[in-house]
Amino acid sequence: MRNAKRWGIAVCMGALWISVGCVEGVDVNKTEGASAGCEEPTEELTVAQAPMLPGRDCIACHKPDSSAHELPWTAAGTVYDRKDGPCNEGGVRDVKVEIMDENRKVLITLTTNRTGNFFTAEPLSFQKMIARISKDNVVKEMPHPVSHANCAACHQAKGFAKGHIYLP
Amino acid sequence: MSLMLVRKVIRRWPVRGPVGVCALSLLFLVGWVGVLRAEGPTRQPDSPLPASVPSAAAAVSVPSSASSSSSGSANPAESSGAETDFSFDLLPKAPPKTPEGVAQVQEIERKSRIRRGMLRTHLVLGIATMATMAATLVVGQLNYQDQFVNGDFSGRYETPHFVLGLGATTLFTANAALALFSPDPYKKKYRLDTVMVHRIAEGLAAAGMVTQIALGLVTSARVGRLDQPNLALAHLVTGYATYAFMATGTVAHFF
Fold first, then answer.
1. Alpha carbon of A70 to those of A74, B70, B181, B221, B232: distances in Å?
2. What DSSP character marks residue A168?
3. Average pLDDT over residues B96-120
4. Is B210 helix (H, G, I), strand (E, B) or coil?
5. To bridge B202 with a disulfide, which of B106, B115, B213, B249 should be the other Cys (CB 3.0-4.6 Å)?
6. Is B223 close to A121, i.e. CB distance below 8 A?
C-alpha cells in the first residue's frame, strides 16, 4: 500500500514534468506561402506561442479557413532592425505599431514582443490602411496605403516591399 | 505545569522572557478558546432522546424532606438502609426498551459512523485540495509572468496550470460533496462559531472557484484581443482571493 502511494505520487510528478517540457512545434511548410521565403526555423521558434515564426506570413495560417483558424488575426507582422537579414533573428522588441485608416485615424496600437512579432484579432474597419512604427523617437510610416493588414505578404524578400519591416 | 513553564521561559531568556510569556499566554488563550468552541454532539432541550436511553437529569435524587413531587415513583434515597451502608442506587431503573427506541438509537449510531468516516475523509481531502490549489497558484503566477509581464511566451506553464486547476477543482468539488451530503444524526442550532466561519469561508471559496473557471476559459479564448491582459490579471487576483478564503476556512476549523 505504501509502495503504491509512492508510485502514484512519482507518476503524477513525472506527468507534470513531462507536460512542462513537452510543448508542440508547428510545421510552417505545411501551409503554402507561410514560410515567406525564410530559412528553416529553430525548434524554439516553432512553439505555438506569440514569438513563433518571426518574419513568416502569419495570416497564411491565422485565417478562418486555414490551420490556425481558431485564432484568426486581422493584422500581423514582424519588425526587424534591418531590411534584409535572416528571419530567425534580428527582431526588435517593444516597437509601437499603429494601424491607421486612410484618414490617418489610429485604429489600433500594438507592441512587438521579444522576437519582433505583433498581431491582433480585433476587428479593423478600413478601406485602405497605413502602418506607422516607432521606438525611441525613431518613426517610420508607410508611403502608400494598402488594402490589407497582412504585413508579411508584402514585407518579405520576394514581396512587393522587397524586405522586412524594419526600424533602424 | 503552566507556571513551571513560564518560570523556565523567564529564567532562560531574561530579556525576551516577557515577550515569551505574552506569546505563551496568547497560545494558551487560543488553545482554550478552541477547546471551548470544539463541536460535539450536543443534546438540545427540543430534541429529547428516545425513551430507552436513561436520562442523566434524573440521576440526582432529591431528599424526601425537600421534595413534594414524584412521591409515587421509586426514590432510591428513601430506602431505609441508604444513609448508613451506602447501598443506594444513583440511577433509577431504566424504563423498558421498546423496539422503536432501540431502532432509533441504532439509526443514530449508524448515521454517526457514516458521518465520522465522511468527515475524516473530508479533512484529508481538504488538505490535499489546499496543496493542489497552492501549486496551481504558483504555476499560474509563473504563467502570468511568462505571458504578460516579461513577454517570454515560452508556453511551458500553460498545460501544467490547466492540469493543476482541473485537479484542484475536482478535489474541491468532491470535498464539498462529502461535507454537504454527510448525514446529520444530531440536531444542532446554527450559531456563529468556527464551524460557521469555515462554512462561510469555503462557500466564498466555491464562488471564487466558479469565477476562476469562467475567467480562465474566457481569458484563453481572447488571445490577440486587447482585453486579454486585463482578463488575465482578474483571473490571477481571483485565484489569490479564492485561496485566501480556502485558507481562512481551513485555519478556522483547526482552531
1. 13, 85, 42, 9, 19
2. -
3. 90
4. helix
5. B249
6. yes
Residue of B nearest to A16 (CA): B160
**Would you report the helix, strand and coil content of chain A in percent, each value rounded to 5?**
20, 25, 55
User: If you search the block for the grid coordinates 531568556, which residue do you land on?
Assistant: B13
Closest CA to A149 of A96, A79, A73: A73
Q: Which three cell numbers stand for residue B8?
A: 523556565
pTM, whole model, 2 decimals?
A: 0.70
Rounded distance, CA B121 to CA B249, Å?
Answer: 16
Q: Grid coordinates standing for A79?
A: 519588425
10 Å Cβ neighbour count for B113? 12
Instruction: State how far the Cα of B135 lies from the Cα of A99, in Å rounded to an integer.
Output: 41
- Asked if B194 contacts B188 with a C-beta cutoff of 8 angstroms, the reply is no
Residue B88: pLDDT band (50, 70, 90) is confident
Question: Percent of chain A, pLDDT > 90?
Answer: 76
ipTM for the predicted complex: 0.82
Residue of A71, A39, A32 lying closest to A55 (CA atoms): A39
Angle at B202 between CA B199 and CA B207, to 5 degrees: 125
Measured between beta carbons, the chain B residues lying within 8 angstroms of A50 are: 147, 151, 153
First to last CA, chain A: 66
Distance from CA of B226 to the nearest CA of A (A): 7
- Distance separating alpha carbons of residues B192 and A113, to the nearest angstrom: 53
